[in-house]
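quick one
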Amino acid sequence: MQELLFEASVSGGSPLFSADTLLLDLSMPGMEMGKNEVTLRKAAENLYRGTGVIVKCPSGRTLWRATLSISETLKPSFTFNVRE
Ligand SMILES: [Cu+2]
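structure w/ copper (II) ion:
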């Protein structure tokens, strides 16, 4: 298991964007790893931060996907590899 720091910055934010927290969902593309959510808290204007834990995948794969829930319709995601 690895504890990771996640940081999200929101640029070009609308003045309506004032959430105190954002939810980051961690998953593995094509695999069911169970629910793994990280709450990002507002650290500064347009900056959110939180720590989460990535479990070691029994399959040995290291590719994860982080999906940020900004709103019902705005959920950007990106993939990243974790080191062994
Ligand atoms: Cu997995």
